[in-house]
Amino acid sequence: MDFGRLITAMITPFDEQGKINWSETSNIINHLIEVQKSDSIVICGTTGESPTLHEKEKLELFAFALEQAKGRCKIIAGTGSNSTEHSIHLTKEAEKLGVDGALLVVPYYNKPSQEGMYRHFEVIARSTSLPIMLYNVPGRTVASISAATTLRLAEIPNIVATKECASLEQVTQIAAGAPESFRVYSGDDSVTLPALAVGAYGIVSVASHLIGASMQEMIQAYLNGEVAKAARLHQKLFPVFKGLFECPAPVPNPSALKYALNLMGHSVGGVRLPLVDPSESEAAFIRELVASL
To answer: What family, per the record (predicted)?
Structure first.
């Protein structure tokens, strides 16, 4: 399974009542494919506010995304959680719908050991024929899967990739030691280009909602040996990479992103509690950021 170089972790649009806005979900999917040049889309990842989506909503979103994409890009279902049993169940249900792959986050809150993480991912992978992408994001899960454990998991045939947010050092170690077919994706927009330089295959992006086409241009420039051009594009895009997450103070993804998309004419609504919309000072910063695009 080739998920491509640019994967977007998609937001979930909501209406004024906090319900899924299906018409805007369709618009965003088309925008990501046609305008922002996403090769694949993650549905119900962290950016999609997965912790606040119940199972029925997730399955409806998986099916809807498949219908809207119509084969124009791959659809990766966010089916991971800190419950191994439920992750197996949701992954199997997503497979029945026809998704192209599953994204499995490191179990959060219960802080498993490395052996516990290995067994968690192993048993889920053995329960499905879907290609699996691991997702290591210690800033959110507290626990971090080690490079050594990731490399053990890379030997399982249908565990084909990882989204790595721990460090460039870990990206390097995994890329150096994994089977040739196993692909490492950065999960941090701001290190897309450096990650490619140390062996990453691509990026699972948030900023690609706004600047995906430029990110594709940067990636292709690097792959074509136009390193100076890629560096210039990275420098140009860097304020957006950082701004979406930092603002005047750190704003939880996807609050800032949704505010930016609303400013750009996409009626994606706000966020569900416990996330909150940007403060006035944060909103002013995001308005300046969008004006610079």
So the answer is: Belongs to the DapA family.
